[in-house]
Design goal:
Layout (H helix, E strand, L loop, with lengths): L7 E3 L7 E5 L13 E5 L6 E7 L2 E6 L8 E6 L6 E14 L4 H18 L2 H13 L3 H13 L9 H4 L24 H4 L2 H11 L10 H6 L6 H18 L2 H4 L11 H10 L2 E3 L2 E3 L2 H18 L3 E3 H8 L3 H10 L3 E5 L2 E5 L17
Helix pairs in contact: 6-8, 8-11
């Protein structure tokens, strides 16, 4: 075998040779030169060759060589200079035009023959195939009709986003208030229209007979209309706090039987509603107790007997202490009594982890 000295190596540039192979045959000396169409993909940079040979159209895409490279050894007969030229490979495949009408006609004929002369099993198979056929245009129209009837509902997710915040459990609070009276604004709890409507609904009812003994002790003095409404509001929330979930989930459950307006407010703000079913997470349960404590503070001149409240509600002092601190009130010991009092500066609730129980 003769030995050659490589004088020059030509790496692949913007223009480089392509080595063509045919999928359905080999090149012989009878192959005549033919015009080729060279196309380049603007996105990938790959090249495609298309040509016509023997009344057939051949096309192929440039192959990606990962394990090696292809070189052409070229020798100049005059000068004897030998060069290595980098090239790429392309496999040309014949392109056959399919006649869709002929294919459909053949399937139709095969179906008719199977129905007339096929066995019982063959008939069942062909009927099953017919049922599985899908009209793409019909399905597209059906999906279009479905998407046209879809509407978007905007849901209020504010309560879900704030459930881990301390402000979720209590009414809007002004922690920078200059006076105790400015800490909680009554209009942010209930508007004047709501208070008037609720008072007109509970007036003349027997709400006093259903009051919690602790709340009944606060009602011994003459209460204003606003305080009367807050008293019934607090009673409703304390009753809700102690109600079992199996009773709340009933369709005929009523939080406040004396006022339809207050009943709607409580069901909307202190219970969740998922797919038409009522629910109550631990956060919502704690929210009802915290709101009730705020209302009791507002009714009783911003203080109440902490020990009596725990005893009447049958709650541990540890449970109620964290709720009282969240409202901004402070526990003050007076002799043997422990009083919860809302005073300035407000009490700051202790930092707690999201995973810990409240």
């Amino acid at each position: 075998m003769p030995q050659f000295h490589i004088d020059e190596v030509c790496p692949k540039d913007t223009v480089y040779p392509l080595v063509v192979n045919f999928q359905n045959g080999y090149v012989t000396q009878k192959l005549k030169s033919a015009d080729c169409l060279l196309l380049e993909d603007q996105n990938t940079g790959k090249r495609t060759v298309a040509t016509e040979l023997c009344d057939l159209i051949y096309s192929g895409e440039e192959e990606q060589e990962e394990l090696g490279k292809t070189f052409i050894l070229a020798r100049n007969k005059t000068t004897g200079k030998v060069r290595l030229i980098e090239a790429e490979n392309i496999e040309l495949k014949p392109y056959f035009k399919s006649d869709l009408d002929t294919t459909v006609a053949a399937e139709t004929s095969y179906l008719e023959l199977s129905r007339k002369f096929g066995s019982k099993k063959q008939k069942q198979i062909m009927e099953h195939r017919e049922k599985l056929k899908i009209n793409v245009q019909t399905v597209t129209e059906q999906m279009q009709n479905v998407t046209d009837s879809i509407t978007e509902d905007q849901m209020d997710l504010s309560s879900y986003n704030k459930s881990d915040s301390d402000e979720f459990y209590i009414p809007p609070i002004n922690r920078d208030a200059a006076k105790v009276e400015e800490v909680y604004d009554l209009d942010t709890i209930l508007t004047s229209e709501q208070r008037d409507k609720i008072y007109s609904e509970i007036e003349g009812s027997k709400y006093m007979a259903e009051l919690n003994p602790f709340l009944k002790s606060l009602a011994t003095k003459e209460l204003s209309k606003t305080h009367t409404v807050l008293l019934v509001y607090a009673q409703t929330l304390l009753q809700l706090y102690s109600t079992l979930m199996k009773d709340i989930s009933k369709k005929n459950f009523t939080a406040c039987p004396y006022s339809a307006t207050l009943n709607d407010i409580v069901l909307k703000n202190f219970l969740s509603n998922v797919n038409g079913k009522r629910g109550r997470s631990p956060q919502f349960k704690d929210k009802s107790l915290c709101h009730a404590l705020v209302f009791i503070l507002l009714i009783n001149n911003y203080k109440f007997n902490f020990n009596d409240l725990c005893q009447e509600l049958k709650l541990t002092q540890r449970t109620v202490t964290s709720k009282v601190a969240l409202t901004g009130a402070t526990l003050v010991t007076s002799g043997t009594k422990k009083m919860a009092q809302l005073k300035l500066p407000l009490s700051r609730p202790a930092l707690r982890r999201k995973s810990s129980k409240f």
